[in-house]
Sequence to fold (118 residues):
Amino acid sequence: MARGNASAIRGTRIGSGPMGEQDHGHHAERIEITYWDAYGNSVERSYSADVPDDEIPEIVDHPKSGLPAGRDKDNPPAPNKLEPYKTHLAYVKERRSDEEGAELLEDALQKLREKRGQ
Fold:
């Protein structure tokens, strides 16, 4: 079993230069923006320095808490109000009135009675 210098190149790309070589690719200028959520947690996001300020978001989702985070530390955005879980019946009642529901039920019962021969 030949070992040689295999361990010296393990984990490196073929054709890569010496370790620590810094002239691979172009490094764009970056700006760091800090956002805070309602619990005081902060998160930093990096943006290209070429991006206009109006294209940088005012609010982002905090990756740990899931809350919205804004740029103003003293006035973070309020958490989104969670709507309660709706059942299928609640969605149906939003689309149909009680009269329409009764009419549909009667039509379905009539078809069932005809099918059974009553």
